[in-house]
Amino acid sequence: MSGKAERKSPLAPPDFPELPAIKGLGMAAGDAAIKHAGRNDLAIWTVDSGTSAAGLFTRSMLPAAPVTVTKEHIQAAPPRALLVNSANANAFTGLQGLADCRTIARATAEALGCKPEQVLMASTGVIGEPLPVRQIMDRIPELPKKIRPAAWQDAAEAIMTTDTFAKGAHAHAVIDGQPVTLCGVAKGSGMIAPNMATMLAFCFTDARIPGVQLHEMLLASADRTFNAITVDSDTSTSDMLLLFATGKAGHAPPGSVDDPRFEGFRAALDELLKDLAIQIVRDGEGASKLIETRISGAESDASARKIAESVANSPLVKTAIAGGDANWGRIIMALGKSGENVQAEHLLIRIGGELVASGGQRAENYDESRITRHLEGDEILIEAELQIGSGAFTIWTCDLTHGYISINADYRS
Amino acid sequence: MSGKAERKSPLAPPDFPELPAIKGLGMAAGDAAIKHAGRNDLAIWTVDSGTSAAGLFTRSMLPAAPVTVTKEHIQAAPPRALLVNSANANAFTGLQGLADCRTIARATAEALGCKPEQVLMASTGVIGEPLPVRQIMDRIPELPKKIRPAAWQDAAEAIMTTDTFAKGAHAHAVIDGQPVTLCGVAKGSGMIAPNMATMLAFCFTDARIPGVQLHEMLLASADRTFNAITVDSDTSTSDMLLLFATGKAGHAPPGSVDDPRFEGFRAALDELLKDLAIQIVRDGEGASKLIETRISGAESDASARKIAESVANSPLVKTAIAGGDANWGRIIMALGKSGENVQAEHLLIRIGGELVASGGQRAENYDESRITRHLEGDEILIEAELQIGSGAFTIWTCDLTHGYISINADYRS
């Protein structure tokens, strides 16, 4: 825990937003002394019975213990609580790591009066170090008494590692004339030495949506939000996105996933997840610029996604933008290396809306000074129009700066 | 052309090696004033008639003009010359770029008394800028007079962009009792602002091997050498690896690709390409450490390659090594994100030969100080033994340092 990342990201929003309470939901933070003294490292959310939940988890082949256990629990029983610790990932901790999760789930269930399978868990922090179970267990009995309806900022801060700001967002919809609220918190691409970035996001709504449909909606929304951001192309052992629906809003449940009554809800969920996802990019390690890469006219959406990933993950593109260098040759390189169908003669490339390439060569009226001016800002737009088909995809990333190296290389464990 | 990369890589060999002449081959360098004044930017190699050639080319969907033309020429006729310019890639230059290549091929053919299709070409440097054809054309008539049998260093220096040292290597074999020589030069992952790294390698031998077999041998050798190195996972529009065989060594040609008489030759080719490939990594932008990642016991060689790539391309692994941080959790992360079959309980991870993880958790006698000592050196060895199958693959890369960011971000075009 180096303290290197204490300086707030220049791309941070001014303040943590005011998030409303959600019926059937409470939360609290606690200090198990895993992090620096005086900084909370435990967060709990409790939900009334009748709540459904859906989750998306890291695709890592070596997932952390709480990922394995939470996947199991979310299938086994309707949830009553989510317990999260930061500063230790309980990852690559073998059978002991799994046993530690079960111990904590039992204690939490006991404190709340529910079954252990009703407790979901997440951890983020150091990999390969045994979880300090005793420290966490000592704090569990007191957590239920501390629960309040909207302690969002406390909870968001407790799950931070070296995030430079706490991340929260909310959105609203109307279903059957009933107002519905969605709130969420996230932690992202800060590092906790000696460790990796982990993406955690926990979202809550008072909408009434059974688990199966909730999962489908979450999957669809995540596809173009949380699955459309990248900081350094690395994937944590611990990534987790959970959505809880307490069902208190007083409308009828959806008839199907694409029930038109839930159109507003689906849009609000998109909005919530996009807001949180972009906040994670804004806090990317060393980030000084937010980069939006829009690919259109590709053979398919899947092809557009691969091309967008190729650009957004290219260290040469990301360093050029960090340096404010109108180096569009690197975009050509990244488009070309995608392996996807890209045809030089049809390709249009724009930076900040200015055409830089068309007809297989530099655009006729190319004016580097206009591009350079755009690159001086902190929100950069790269567009490639392939003019082959109608596939489109947008990815958000940040630039690659000395800050990234400092955070990840200069610290010695 | 920033001059930022002038300081020699700390991983550079002390001197350019003494490379012998090869019967039937000559070479020269020239100055077309595309680079800094006084630095050569043209190289020519001429080969006697009877020479065969094989090439491997960038997989970029947007290849540079000389890639397209050289692929065409190498199929059309036996080669007589290779003309290379640095400082302009002739990439994304549309129909004009192709026309420029043909103009240069015609002029070179005229100067040498051969057909235009017998001239192969390569370019490396700025993307999207028209090639200064006139400057190159002006130098072509005088090149034949300058040709000498072993001007290897001159030629190697002429193809450099921001490489910090010229790269050359040689190897030897015996075929049917006849000594056979192999020599090669390469340029690599230096940047020429405002542009990308390009990998060019040109190898020559006096062995007698028809084009078809030569191509197969080159492909096999490149697979575990040039295709087993990575600096930043980006792929240039201009990458090219050529092998010429003048056939002067006086042995009979191979009966087939796997003719046992050519076993020594194939081994020597492996050696030559590995030597050049690792020199490119040693000159990786900002490199302070050479990293060898050995994966063994994987489901298949292909699986081992994907896992090795996941580790070698991970910015978090590369920055940890740059910082001398014994952060093996990042190796776990990189193995896990590969998507390949990796089983925690069977996995053995070693750094510098020291066991750090086994049985799905930190190794019992893990001693960080021993790892830290290894990381203080400049040749780092990461091994992951999966104990699943017999697939194996080794990749070489370099660390990710402030130097990389400085070279690629700090310069403004």
What does this structure look like?
2 copies of one chain form a homodimer. With 413 residues, chain A is an alpha+beta fold. The first copy, chain A, is 31% helix and 25% strand. Chain A has 12 helices and 16 strands. Chain A has helices at residues 65-76, 94-112, 133-139, 143-146, 152-158, 211-223, 263-282, 301-312, 315-322, 329-337, 368-376, 402-410; strands at 25-30, 42-47, 52-57, 81-88, 119-126, 167-175, 178-187, 200-205, 229-230, 240-245, 290-298, 348-351, 354-358, 361-362, 379-385, 391-398. In chain A, the strands form 3 sheets. A 7-stranded mixed beta sheet of chain A has the order 9-16-11-15-12-13-14, with helices on both faces. In chain A, strands 3-10-8-7-6 form a 5-stranded mixed beta sheet, with helices on both faces. Chain A has a 4-stranded mixed beta sheet with strand order 1-2-4-5, with helices on both faces. In chain A, helix 1 (65-76) packs across helix 2 and helix 6 crosses helix 7. The radius of gyration of chain A is 22 Å and the shape is globular. Chains A and B meet through helix 2, helix 9, helix 10, strand 14 and helix 12 of A and helix 2, helix 9, helix 10, strand 14 and helix 12 of B.
Helices, strands, pairings?
The structure is a homodimer of 413-residue chains.
Chain A: E1 25-30, E2 42-47, E3 52-57, H1 65-76, E4 81-88, H2 94-112, E5 119-126, H3 133-139, H4 143-146, H5 152-158, E6 167-175, E7 178-187, E8 200-205, H6 211-223, E9 229-230, E10 240-245, H7 263-282, E11 290-298, H8 301-312, H9 315-322, H10 329-337, E12 348-351, E13 354-358, E14 361-362, H11 368-376, E15 379-385, E16 391-398, H12 402-410
Parallel strand pairs in A: 4-5, 8-10, 9-16, 11-15
Antiparallel strand pairs in A: 1-2, 2-4, 3-10, 6-7, 7-8, 11-16, 12-13, 12-15, 13-14
